[in-house]
Amino acid sequence: MGWRDRGVEVKTPEQVAGMRRAGLVVGRTLEVLADLARPGLTTGDLDEAAERHIRQLGATPSFLGYQGFTGSICVSVNEEVVHGVPGDRRLVEGDLVSIDCGAIVDGWHGDAAITVALGEVPDEVAALARVTEEAMWRGIAAARPDGRVTDISHAVETHVRAAGSYGIVEDYTGHGIGSAMHQPPDVPNYGRPGKGPRLVPGLALAVEPMLVLGDPTNDVLDDDWTVVTRDRSWAAHSEHTFTLTPDGGTWVLTALDGGRAQLEALGVPYGGD
Length: 273
Known about the structure:
The chain is an alpha+beta fold. Helices cover 29% and strands 26% of the residues.
């Protein structure tokens, strides 16, 4: 294992393969939860299903017990941006639900998030979720060998600004990931390109834009975890873990297809196996 740029962890191909195993657990769990989420369930019901599925696949939930967190996933609804603690909140028709999931396999982490709408939602809410996911993919697509971390940040922001008047949450960022869930470097969702650590094969990053329909200023609730918009405007969150491969391709470790479809549509070489 190599270390560059102030503690940045660079994985060997064998270690990246371990991260892919963790990433597949995350991707499959999120697929199950997206199908399961419906009005009448509680956020705690989704959490129980997530833990059961993660453990059935031979993995450990990354979030459970992390700095005292009590859930295996984060479930953030409507005005909740991120880090929603699963519990007795009951989902209703028209909710916008963000689900963040992490899993560990043989000491390696995967981390991803999706936002799903329950039934019919206003056009502006559906667009918010769509633009958030698109911005994540544009960020991943901007990563090139020997580029810099903020190339990703700039691509995310550029797509968001072109899509409408969305607020970009600046207080929470993407991050490095590997033998720990959160590692250097931070991956902001805004900024000028060409700054930060160099992008090299084996550096794994979680890219995760968080967008809101109103003011991105936010607060943390009394549970010390759940982040909500101060003006209670609705939020969306999308995340994938990816790496660059030695052949110059990109491999999205938490996407079930490795990101092939989205990357090829964006003209990016696919680096998975």
